[in-house]
Amino acid sequence: MVKFNEGASLNTGQISDQRGSSGGGGGGLGGGGLGGIPIGKAGGGIGLVVAIVLIAIQLFGGKFGGGSDTGSASGGSSLLQQAAATGDNVDASALASECRTGADANAKDDCRVVGFVNSIQDYWANQFKSTGKTYPEATTVFYSQAVSTGCGQGSSGMGPFYCPADNQVYIDLSFWQDLKTQFGTNGGVFAEGYVLAHEYGHHIQALLGTSDRVGSDSGPTSGSVRLELQADCYAGVWAKNATSTPGADGQILISDITDQDISDALDTASKIGDDYIQTHLGSGRSDPSQYTHGTSAQREKWFRQGFSTGDPAQCDTFGAKDLG
Questions:
Q1: CA 124, CA 102: separation in Å to the nearest integer?
Q2: Closest CA to 269 of 320, 311, 303, 223
Q3: Is 322 helix (H, G, I), strand (E, B) or coil?
Q4: Which residue of 22, 208, 216, 308 sits 20 to 30 Å from the alpha carbon of 284, by its own alpha carbon?
Q5: What are the tens digits of pLDDT across the range 134-172?
Q6: Inter-axis angle of helices 53-60 and 274-281, to 10 degrees?
Q7: Nearest to residue 190, comparing CAs of 72, 299, 107, 99?
Q8: DSSP symbol at 43
Q9: How far is CA 289 from CA 37, 136, 227, 228, 253, in A?
Q10: pLDDT tens, 285-306?
Q11: H-helix or E-strand containing 169?
Q12: What percent of the chain has pLDDT over 70?
């Protein structure tokens, strides 16, 4: 299982912990997520709904997935679970006191997520610096049940998403459990890193202007599919480079990524393809004309592309004639 360098520092300043508070206001949500269907332009030009689970909501009616944090894939405790036991809200300062080093990331679920976010942003900061540019960080917002965003109102049933209007990644951490119980993934903890790296891939696309090239079209070769597959590829690039990427303290945060970790990421990718979702969580048949994120095989292929090359320049899904 992925290991963090126990002596490396964690930066909770990249996290906004809003769990226990209620979000409000806002209209329809638009942004980049792991799965979904086109809903029109919103949130800075990305015309995609922001989450996998929304498909199942529309197909089955009602809520799909839990609305409170049930812990992550490893089954460990979380700050929200502790708060639920006492009836208190999460103290936003608690994360900073709980998550200080890589040792905390190895021991605590919430801190591991902080570690993944730090590592992903460390990689992109170094990548931008190598080209003479400055990387603008994106805050990851932890929330429960509902959240107000620059792209509209979000809810726990939407899964993780990136909002380009406020340059933030949003996640209800109960999603890790949904991946296992609803989508049937293996539940390995590195799936968390893949999911977060995919969302930060959308942040990179927003910074580079790639997102502005994509409308709300659908289909097997649509811009929407190419955008999502590129984000998968960027996630693979990060995974390849994570164990050699220094953080702000000069230390490498992630010390080890195993073959099983990569297998868990690929397993997750295989369970969030358009064809898999439509077949297993929808009508029972696959309709390529409605694809917006790519098939399971394509999502695996482009994560592998990023991981095998370790080079974001090899993630040009828009120039690829064959997406796989």
A1: 19
A2: 303
A3: coil
A4: 216
A5: 999 999 999 999 999 999 999 888 889 999 999 999 999
A6: 30
A7: 72
A8: T
A9: 11, 36, 16, 16, 42
A10: 899 999 999 999 999 999 999 9
A11: strand 168-171
A12: 78
